[in-house]
């Protein structure tokens, strides 16, 4: 069943296009808001909840009132049918959430193609840009941008991207055999110790909070939770306040380098997630903000007068987009919680090496290494 007359609903099958992106001051890349159908299937732990309670509990980026209106207006459907707000979901049912999608912005730097070979394309990923579609990101990803701007698709994720399944399988075998090595540089707080520092501490990732913790045996006989993880660190240089550190992860856990640096007392100097123990995930901020806008129980129609094009003083020429009366993010371009100007995380991959290949990436501006330091890094 259609969720609104005159609306073209995108799905993951719709590829990103060059005109989907908006740049501001050359510093931030936005995605023009678009209509999208999110599809999920009822998990066992969701069974027995009402459709409104389910979305209020599990998807906290929007207030309960929004989900009530969405059900009444057909923006939330079960098995392609409009239901009542007290409808109780059952295991494996299909749920469609039709919404006006605002993706978070990322830093506006180009994704530089370092090498483009027959089977492999190697790119330099800007900070803050996710590799592949995840969470709120779909078009504002390395895969999406490469497809929109360079026509590169399909790609098999590595950041050294395989262009075909055979090459991807070859890389997978090399990874499983521990034949690949990544090297990063990080800018950390404090004077990092001289000499190689090896951190061997399990990593436990909390998906709900979006961050990891380091776990070690505390001597009471209890095995630490999380997955085994090891990282080798080497100080490159220091100015007495910060240090540039070479990081060699032996394993590959979520946020491993960031968590291990925090664990030993030298967190990355601009890492908001791990500098403080009071981190609040931005994905939950929308539900905490008291919105002055009244949510209207109406759907955009095909009548051009039913939606407004905005061109505010904060919007450059050519950045107009339609306001959706059900959307909790309009008239802002970015979703709630992503309006602040950000700097990329001071953690950057500089080398990726395999049995018979090696790729290097340019150093970021914050890693101001002198010639002696660069020579030491390459030794």
Strand content of the residues, in percent?
A: 15-25%
The major beta sheet can be summarized as:
6 strands, antiparallel
Strand order of the largest sheet: 12-15-16-11-17-18
CATH architecture of the domain at 181-271 and 345-374: 2-Layer Sandwich
Output the helix-strand order.
Answer: EEEHHEEEEEEHEHEEEEEEHHHEEH
CATH class category of the domain at 181-271 and 345-374: Alpha Beta
Rg calc = 23 Å
Residue ranges: pLDDT <50 for 5 or more in a row? 282-318, 371-379
Q: Oligomeric status of the shown chains?
A: single chain
Give average pLDDT, whole number.
81
Based on Cα principal axes, name the global outline: globular
Say which CATH homologous superfamily of the domain at 181-271 and 345-374 is assigned. Pseudouridine synthase
Give the class from helix and strand content and strand pairing: alpha+beta
CATH topology of the domain at 181-271 and 345-374: the name is Pseudouridine synthase
């Amino acid at each position: 069943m259609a969720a609104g007359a005159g609306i073209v609903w995108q799905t993951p099958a719709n590829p990103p296009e060059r005109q989907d992106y908006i740049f501001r001051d050359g510093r931030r890349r936005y995605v023009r808001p678009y209509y999208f159908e999110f599809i999920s299937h009822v998990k066992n732990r969701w069974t027995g909840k009402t459709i409104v309670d389910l979305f209020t509990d599990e998807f906290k980026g929007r207030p309960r009132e929004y989900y009530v209106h969405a059900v009444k207006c057909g923006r939330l459907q079960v098995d392609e049918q409009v239901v009542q707000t007290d409808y109780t979901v059952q295991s494996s049912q299909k749920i469609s959430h039709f919404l006006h999608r605002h993706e978070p912005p990322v830093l506006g730097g180009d994704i530089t193609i370092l090498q483009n070979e027959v089977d492999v394309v190697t790119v330099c990923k800007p900070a803050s840009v996710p590799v592949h579609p995840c969470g709120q990101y779909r078009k504002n990803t390395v895969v999406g941008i490469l497809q929109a701007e360079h026509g590169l698709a399909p790609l098999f994720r590595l950041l050294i991207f395989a262009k075909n399944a055979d090459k991807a399988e070859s890389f997978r075998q090399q990874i499983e055999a521990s034949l690949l090595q990544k090297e990063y540089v990080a800018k950390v707080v404090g004077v990092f110790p001289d000499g190689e520092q090896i951190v061997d501490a399990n990593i436990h990732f909390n998906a709900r909070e979006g961050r990891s913790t380091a776990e070690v045996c505390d001597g009471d006989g209890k095995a630490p939770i999380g997955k085994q993880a090891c990282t080798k660190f080497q100080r490159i240089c220091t100015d007495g306040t910060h240090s540039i550190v070479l990081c060699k992860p032996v394993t590959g856990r979520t946020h491993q380098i960031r968590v291990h640096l925090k664990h030993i007392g030298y967190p990355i100097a601009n890492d908001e997630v791990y500098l403080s123990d009071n981190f609040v995930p931005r994905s939950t901020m929308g539900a905490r903000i008291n919105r002055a806008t009244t949510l209207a129980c109406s759907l955009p129609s095909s009548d051009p007068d039913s939606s407004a094009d905005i061109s505010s003083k904060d919007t450059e020429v050519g950045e107009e987009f339609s306001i959706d009366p059900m959307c909790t993010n309009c008239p802002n371009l970015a979703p709630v919680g992503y309006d602040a100007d950000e700097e990329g995380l001071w953690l950057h991959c500089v080398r990726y090496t395999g049995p018979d290949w090696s790729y290097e990436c340019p150093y970021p501006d914050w890693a101001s290494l002198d010639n002696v330091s660069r020579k030491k890094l390459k030794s």
